[in-house]
Amino acid sequence: MSQEIVSTITVKNTLNLNREFETVEVDVSNIAPEKVTDLVVLDEESNQLISQVVDLDIDGKTDVLLFQPSIKANTTKKYYLTFAEEVKDSVINYCYSRFVPERTDDYTWENNRVAFRTFGPVAQKMVEDGVKGGTLSSGIDAWLKRVEYPIINLWYKRNDEKKGAYHKDHGEGVDNFHVGVSRGIGGTAVKVDTSYYFSKNFTSYKTITTGPLRTSFVLTYATWDANGKQIDETKHISLDYGQNLTRFEIDVKGTEAISSGITLHKKKGVTNQNDANFWVSHWETLDDSEVGTGIVTTKPYFSGSEKYVTSRKDESNHFLHLNVVDNKVIFYSGFGWKKSKQFSSQKEWESYLTDFSKKINSPLEIHIN
């Protein structure tokens, strides 16, 4: 290896599972800004990996470099951080997100496997003022895509040209996942006695990064009332390449416990929970296909689950209960659509959730020299 090595990165997989699509973060904050964009990651055969640099706090200075190792079960590999004259470029930013003012004020995000959106203050005010076309919900919507390339801008453009165009499948997928006031896939709530309370729409957003490996952003919510408890929450949201689950890291004040829910829609699907692996799931028929939804967390945050069924419209959800630890909760939520050919059955979907849980509860061990 002829290049000057900045760091040697040793990655150890302690599980009896092959690992890929897990993102490693390398601190590069001490490297000069004019040089950091020339950083590359090489494997042991000197092959250059796709990487992405991120300014986490948006202060104009790069903080971390991201890459995704591929490691067999129970093995260790070395990677090398160095400078290169030519940086391997990914022609597509698969991990993408943006604020969408042309469709009221959605915030939407996607990677090569899944897409999501949630709703902003203008959509909320329209409902409160009785204006048609608004949305009052802090639930997380799913856009069921079945192509790898980005679809957010394509679908919104089609919708601009013909209202409701993304409710029909043009070969790329479809928006047919009803959210309403439900939690959608990963919306949060606070349970007091036997009732659940939740926020209104997000009030502001901040996009941190988009790229080949990760998109991340922050959503802020107005203080909301849970039967006398005043709840503050700020959601730090990210989605990595190759994953079906979005990561939620939420700053929470006003409660010692919070719940994340998945909608039961018409209450005809099959729910399941796995306390040993800290997940809940739902599998249901949706139009001409089937979809699995789920939420996974790690042991410190897990405190149980509940299938909550009510006659109130859209308020039946399968909840994962979470401990608030140092004013924070972390969980992952997402979906697998049978028509995308990623998962063919409920069994395959739940196996994915179990493997995902094992990985986040036993993360890759990283040593940077």
Describe this structure in words.
With 369 residues, the protein is mainly beta. The protein has 2 domains: 5-87, Golgi alpha-mannosidase II (Immunoglobulin-like); 96-361, Beta-galactosidase, Chain A, domain 5 (Distorted Sandwich). Helices cover 10% and strands 44% of the residues. It contains 4 helices and 27 strands. The protein has helices at residues 33-36, 121-128, 152-161, 346-361; strands at residues 5-12, 24-27, 39-42, 48-49, 51-54, 64-67, 76-83, 96-100, 106-110, 115-119, 141-145, 173-174, 185-192, 195-197, 202-209, 214-221, 224-226, 229-240, 245-253, 257-263, 270-274, 279-286, 289-297, 302-308, 317-323, 328-337, 365-368. The strands form 5 sheets. Strands 15, 16, 17, 18, 19, 21, 22, 23 and 26 form a 9-stranded antiparallel sheet that branches. It has a 5-stranded antiparallel sheet with strand order 4-3-7-1-27, with no helix packed on it. A 5-stranded antiparallel sheet has the order 8-9-10-11-12. The mean pLDDT is 96.
Q: Characterize the biggest β-sheet.
A: 9 strands, antiparallel
Please report which band the strand proportion falls in: under 5%, 5-15%, 15-25%, 25-35%, 35-45% or over 45%: 35-45%
Number of strand elements: 27
N-end to C-end Cα span:
17 Å
> How many structural domains are formed by the residues?
2
Radius of gyration: 21 Å
Mean pLDDT: 96
CATH architecture of the largest domain: Distorted Sandwich
Bulk shape: globular
* Helical/strand content category: mainly beta
Classified by CATH, the class of the largest domain is Mainly Beta
